Amino acid sequence: MLKISILKVENPSCLWGRVISGDTETTEQYDSLMVQMNLFYHDATQDLRKLKPTSIEEGQVCVVYWSVMKSWCRAVVESIIMDSVSCKARCVLIDHGERLVVPSDQIRVATEKFLQLPFWVRRFHLAGIKPTTLRVSVFEEKADLEESFFSFEIKASTWTEAVLLESESDSTSIELYLTIGNVKICVNDDLVAKKFAYYSRESAENSGMDEVDRCPVMLSSNILTQTVSTISNTPAAQTQPAPAGDWLMAPSPPQSQHHELETGEGGGRSDVTGELTPGSQSKKSSDPVVPSDPRGSGILVHSAVPIEPCTSLDDAPVTDALRWVLRKKQYSALSPADCYSWPAVARGFNTIIVSHNADQPLSYLAPLLTHILLNSIFSSLTSSSGPIAVLLCPGWEKVQSVYDLLEESKLAHTLHPVIVLLGAGTDEAKTVRIPKNCLLLVTTPFSLVRLLSSHCFMFLRLYHLVLDGADQLFTLAPDQMATILQHFQKVTSSEEKASCPQQLVAVAKRWTSHMEGLLTTHMPYPCIVMTVPEEAALYGNVHQIILMTLESSKISELLGTLDFNPVVGQKTLIIANSVQEVEDVFKAVSNKSAFCLRAHEESTHQLDFVTQQWRKDIGPGTHVILVTTNECLKCFGIRDATCVVHYSFPTSPKVFGSRLFCMAERFRNLSERDQTNSSRHDAQSVLLISERNARHVVGVLRYLGRTDATLPPELQSFGQGVHVAREDQKTNRPLCSYLKSFGVCRDSSACPDRHRFISQLDQSELPASGVIEVVPLFIKTASVFYGRIVRKQDSGFDVLASEMASYYADKKPGATEMLEGGLYAVQEEELFHRVKILSVPVRGDCLFFRVLVRFVDVGKEEEVKSHQILQLPERFHSLPGQAVEIIVCRVKPADAEIDWHPKVTRAISQKIRGLQHRARAVHSLGNTVFVDPMVRVTQVPGMKTVINEYNVQSEILSTGMGVRNPEHVDLLRALSQEGGASDGKEAGDISG
């Protein structure tokens, strides 16, 4: 039993209807599809060049605008109408059964996500009957349905008008039967009884009609409804929803005609049965299509000089050699930030770039190197020496990665780049020698200041200063950055060098207040490119207002913040989460006699009207308010709002930023030198926070803390409580390694590890005080080692090592089965080590593979070849793993680095690995013992005297890459005390 909703009757051979499955899920799916399509194609931020098809063909599946319903609908092109002025298409709306003619500018590409559901409308026809033949008698001058010898036959190709009208009142379906009340009626027989049709044996043979069904019942013309119950002539097992290809049974079109349009991409195609042809959609370009107004795509570009963006790597302002390098590095698709910033950097403009991909040096190196190579600085300063460009990075790791890219760029023979990383030693800078042919120096702010103090004369032809990670540079080294910028300004402002290019480029992921001073003081005529909307709002100086309220009081709190009689014209956006919230807020605001608009997913037909009303000019005293949802907000492309009210809480920084960017035209413009006219910089954001927003509070507080907003004390207290609750959920995480190594975490808000002491996990059996003997075996960093604690009364490990060597001297049985968590043995040189398998890869058909293991008596983790893993007898399992973590206290990396430089780790490893040291334990947590100091002690031959050869902390400090960290142990003890742990007593000094 099928239910069919008849939408339109063209004739009994063409009935348009929908098969109703009986549940509401299908209807909801198509309603959702219509909403999503209208939101997508009404989206003002979409680039029409990508959405308009390059061509229109008969049978093509596309999306067209139905002006009657003010809605975008899926359609199939039936024919093309061309004239000298325009191109139009005659289309069938495949979800509505309507035909209409639409101009080409109202046709869009049907994207793949809107073609997942099959066509909703299907064409039916009556089976087993054909239209009667009209015979016209020439002699009697009359027409009837009876045969006559002297007559000419006009064969009916369509149904007559009378039958058409009868069919429209008698809603029918193909080879099916109409049930009205308890009466079953065959519509086919009714037409035959009325002599509008006759039975056709050839089509009736397969109709499946029984004798009862063959008895016609006359239909009344006023009892039919749009939805009727029918019985299919197909078996019950066959009555399933038809596949996509069966939802549109269009007649075979004539030979397709191909018509070119101006821009865009082709849509999907349908064959004669309505199926979507696989792979019929055009392949999209990997390069972004740059919009004429970048703000439409959430990109803020403020430039003192007009910038023409590039669209792809082919027209990017870089040399052919660099273009080849970029393609080799698979950097062929430019980001939106690249499209706008590369022309500015390549032309030598002062540029600030804030984007998510700011940590990729290629995003600024290509245009910068192009400008350096192509300008005339080489010929003008041939007599000078020293670098012409300095690239500052926030740490040694970034310095190394940038230098590696420069080496790969094949430009080293021209630029001769050099890395300089200086320690804190006072004399180290004096010994540095920069080659005379070096044009590009890569370093950190700390190292550059040390160089300037000893070799200031080497930086007299500095004209390009690049700040990689500018937000971090100013945060970690504010004093050093001030010194560097002062030198840069002094060098580039001299009259004799006025004709030479001067350029300052700052790249960052976040906007900071320091960068405002950088712009106003050191960057004349800048170009500012920001592709992170929430950061653009910080730059634009959006005033943030935070209101704490109960969920039940949000509307009254909202009404209290709105000014319904403003002195100057205001445009306010109120953003809610649901349709019901929009309706509730709209009702409340409308009662205040404000000019209020609303838009949500159930009113997409009003989107054009709302857009027109919003864009009208307003005068003083007028306050236009639009209440909408996040989804609908994108459709309007609003950039001139004066206030955004977050009635519903933004669930992510991206959502928050997209809302704030609706005020982009109100953002201050720091590329303008004249900032006296600040009356239009009145963007305001009102955030309503209720008890439902607990899980988002920490992230919002982190953002609001970077603004000048006044934070309510209850909000700060609430945020602290949420932070504590999150820490309580990290019981399955290890204690933060930075917390153990240096006493503080580098970023506790983003670190996934635990930062609280838990006695069950961190209680230690290792000594927390006293003098111990340790043997470092694996050097993880300059201050963190893994090794063994040597106890005179315990020789268990020595016995184990000896027995293992004896056992494997005779035979080396390979592991027959490798189980995760199992103990095995591995040979390294002449030693045999116990290992625990951490993970076994899926082998498949591979004969050789690697296994990740932990050396339980050494502490290191690494991959070993499968054939190196040996079976370990049970008698070697009883001794617990001997490796403990040893952390040397009171030292940390210099220059605000978060990790030790490899050369420091390498130097310490070469000095201490495998040697026994004497140390004083000052604390212990879990399997970690903290020592201060740790010295190498040797016995004088023939005497009882011992000598301290070196102190590990002193060796670290002597490299210049480390500094003292006096509060380290105190912080560790405070951590333990907060968790209820007891302190260990300190032992006396180590005597020599």
UniProtKB/TrEMBL annotation:
InterPro entries: P-loop_NTPase, SNase_OB-fold_sf, Tudor, Znf_CCCH
Ranges of compositional bias, category Low complexity: 234-244
Domain C3H1-type, chain residue ranges per copy: 730-758
Organism, as annotated: Seriola dumerili
Annotated zinc fingers (C3H1-type), start-end: 730-758
Enzyme class: hydrolase
Gene3D superfamilies on file: 2.30.30.140, 2.40.50.90, P-loop containing nucleotide triphosphate hydrolases
Keywords, in A-Z order: ATP-binding, Helicase, Hydrolase, Metal-binding, Nucleotide-binding, Repeat, Zinc, Zinc-finger
Catalytic reactions on record: ATP + H2O = ADP + phosphate + H(+)
Tudor domain mapped to chain residues: 55-117
Pfam families per UniProt: TUDOR
Molecular function GO labels: ATP binding; hydrolase activity; RNA helicase activity; zinc ion binding
Protein name: RNA helicase
PANTHER family: ATP-DEPENDENT RNA HELICASE TDRD12-RELATED (PTHR22655)
Region called Disordered, residue ranges: 233-297
